[in-house]
């Protein structure tokens, strides 16, 4: 689906970003977890709570009908409340999700590239993420220049240098 419009995320996208956080938390085929449970859990709530705070940035892909179908965003989490992919102060962590029906059409890669360009323009030197090792998203990240910097229990932290 090349050419879907991508626009900067705004404050009112918070509920959609929560939906995409649920997609990221339940990516595994057959996995299901109630939305309220994911968005209220301490480990996922931190990626969306209070969207959008100063320093938050993201992009949303829209269908031809203007419906949000995917998003990529980053935020800076503090050392005392880190995300899965926290690597250091001043390094934003990204999250990405595309609605299931819209996947595998290049939307995720386009969103990721837009977000990486934005992070670079904002002066960030690195950006991080966390991904379960068997998620096919790993190959998206690798081909966009991310490398594993920390291996965990089934989950890796990856970083891309933006300089
Ligand atoms: C990961 C995700 C954001 C990618 O978005 P997408 O629009 O489906 O991805 P794209 O179509 O741009 O594909 C990018 C790459 O992902 C990989 N990929 C995408 N769909 C795939 C599939 N069904 N099987 C294997 N690899 C796949 C490929 O490497 C692909 O690159 P290629 O097209 O050059 O082969 C999306 O699939 C998603 O929302 N997944 C569930 C949530 C999630 O896992 N988020 C990440 C948490 S870390």
From TrEMBL:
Pfam families: Acetyltransf_1. It comes from the Bacteria. The keyword Nucleotide-binding does not apply. Keywords: Acyltransferase, Transferase. PROSITE patterns: GNAT. CDD domains: NAT_SF. The keyword Acyltransferase applies. Residues 4-163 form the N-acetyltransferase domain. This is GNAT superfamily N-acetyltransferase. It comes from Microbacterium trichothecenolyticum.
């Amino acid at each position: 689906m090349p050419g879907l419009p991508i626009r900067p995320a705004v404050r009112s996208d918070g509920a959609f970003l929560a939906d995409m956080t649920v997609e990221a938390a339940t990516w595994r085929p057959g996995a299901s977890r109630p939305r309220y449970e994911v968005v209220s859990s301490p480990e996922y709530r931190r990626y969306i709570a209070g969207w959008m705070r100063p320093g938050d940035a993201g992009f949303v892909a829209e269908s031809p009908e203007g419906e949000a179908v995917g998003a990529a965003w980053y935020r800076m989490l503090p050392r005392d409340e880190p995300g899965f992919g926290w690597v250091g102060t001043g390094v934003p962590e990204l999250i990405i999700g595309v609605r299931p029906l819209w996947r595998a059409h290049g939307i995720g890669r386009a969103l990721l590239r837009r977000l990486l360009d934005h992070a670079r323009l904002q002066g960030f030197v690195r950006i991080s993420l966390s991904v379960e090792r068997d998620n096919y998203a790993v190959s998206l990240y690798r081909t966009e220049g991310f490398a594993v910097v920390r291996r965990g229990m089934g989950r890796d932290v990856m970083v891309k240098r933006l300089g």
